[in-house]
## 1
Amino acid sequence: VAADECRGRRERLSAEFSERKVDALAVSFAPNLRYVTGFTGSNGLLLALGGGDGIFFTDPRYRIQAGREVSCRVKVCTGPLLPQLIAAAARAGVRRLGFEAAHLSCALFEALSRELPLGAALVPVAGWIEEHRMTKSTAEIAAIRRSVETNSAAFEQAMRHVRAGMRESDLAAELDYRMRRAGAEGTAFETIVAAGERSALPHARPTAARLAAGDLVVVDMGAMQDGYASDMTRMLFLGHPGAKVKRMYRAVLEAQQAAIAAVRPGVTAMHVDRVARRVLKAEKLDKAFVHSTGHGLGLEIHEPPRLGKKEKLRLEPGMAITIEPGVYLEGFGGIRIEDTVAVTPSGCEILTPTPKELRVL
Ligand code: ZN
Ligand code: ZN
């Protein structure tokens, strides 16, 4: 990330200090820290101050890395970082220090309270930086697009190796390997490969079970590249799919396409979810759709907005979201189809290039 991009993010954050009733913010959650500083290491803290200024704290292992990545002042400390942050906040005259309530352990909170000078207050904040992260810059959408393309390239390459007798875990390993070879630094989440009846488990982990003729196979995979996630689900079938599989597949595909067609600025997240559910209801499959229609993604694989039944948030250009309706029938199998899409000023762009028809192998 360009240093001036992080600086701009800190400035936009500190411009909201007064409405959030803080005069500084302690940033501890790694994806948020990366967003406002560029730091990719595992141990760091930021004291975000007014005017986009900040002091970044880390330990000696990250001295060189922080010097290269972080655009604000860096303080390398031995020992716990938190007391150093509190001392710096006190020196800067901070009276109301915001902290990320959803991401701070109880133990750290107690340490924070103990170290706080008399007269200063801790102010819990939640979802604040996440709110900023929801709408992506052009550079961020480009990074997500690269991650999506890597993910789809890895999928195509791995498809050449799929055959009956292969273990679910073998296919998952092949997908993961291909992602890294194609440019990912890793996977965005544990790759899902689930065959036969196990495809009805929305979050199945790959097992040693072997793919067999007549199996419906769900593949849900995502790359993490330059810090940005991608997410895609595709269905395979070994042999000749029967009428029930074909009917289910058509219904899910129709639901997914209808939901994508509903994505545009100004519509609520729950509206997009409702569109997908309406299509499945017409096929009497709505009760088998047991999760929300999608989620935001970026520096995290799951981040706001959530496209669920009660989400009143309105979509905006620059949001990157998944659209992934699915139906799951215990004892039979499940079908999910998932793309990563970007909300544009006039609608949305499907970033995922992989064809959506059932792959019959
Ligand atoms: Zn997925
Ligand atoms: Zn997803």
Note: The pocket of zinc ion (ligand 2) is lined by residues 231, 295, 322, 324, 338 (CB under 6 Å).
## 2
Amino acid sequence: VRIVALRLRTLAVGGAIRNAAIGFDGMTASALALVTDQVVDGRPLVGLGFDSIGRYGSAPLVESRFGPRLRALDPALLDDPVAVRAALLRDEKPGGHGERSIALGLIDAALWDLAAKRAGVPLWRLLAARFGMKGAARVPVYASGGHYRAGDDRAALAEELRACIGRGHTRLKIKYGGLPPDADRRRLEAALRAAEGAALAVDLTGACGTDPAALHATLATLRDLPLAWIEEPVDPLDLALHEAAAAATPTPIATGENLFDAQEVTNLLRHGGLRPARDLLQMDVGFCGGIAGALPVLAALEAGGWPRARWWPHAGHLFAVHAVAGLGLGGHETAMDPASPFGGITVEAGEAAPPEAPGLGFEAHRALAAVFEGMLD
Ligand code: MG
């Protein structure tokens, strides 16, 4: 099979919401369609990929740097995204991965979509078969949202959480650290009341930065609350302050969504003071370079004595569901908004079934299918 066209689009995926670190007004994500010369039912077979949310669209890097290399590859490689990753990283210096991992993840997703479609199976079943896993027909899920909106948003937040519980969720996560402490605490207490016995976590989005005093003051505001976990309390790369956070609270710490490479994860596991029996890792499969980039991250977990079930990837859409189900990861983060490309998965008693359609199943997901409208003609 040959790639005959590589189509990219960057879409606005944000809105008037924010967390402790950023606003989402200008947030974007990119979509990639790899059109092949293979014809199925009279139409060319197409591999689809879509960025995760939170780091802006990766299309410019695909267009200028990795797309031309992909086009120049031996077509025989295309069924093996792990080999493609190695080829695309030729002449790339080690370390400092940053945004290039996101572009590689977008390409990787589209290649796996193609490979699974060609095999006639959903990606999670292909991954399980290829990497010696059982595959999970249901995966644990949590609903992620609770962003700050303008003004006093406690009533809207409580309504958002109750709606999630009504849709079958048993685990919820909201933002924290973005208001003065008293107002933030009142907002969190309102959320805990609305959560009505569901597990509730808070995401600080690195709000305490590299400041130990800010960390300890913030943890003090959370001390007596029944939280499922405290996410990203400090700068993603301040390993010493991670260690201080882990030592300062009995509540699980969750982090890792801004680490994009196996060596970055190894450093966190070696020096961040996190505990495999208690804490959670959240590297984003797409931002780590996709499945081919996630495999060395899994090896880093195993080398560090971490069960893969402690990895709950950041900010998924269907690509992450397949990774969780196919590679035996812990669970899936889905957006609270069911109309979002990052949400819309059917949940029952806190679990969701990964798609059974061949490939990633984007075509059967209303919001994800809309992303690719007009790109496939
Ligand atoms: Mg987060």
Note: The pocket of magnesium ion is lined by residues 203, 205, 231-232, 257 (CB under 6 Å).
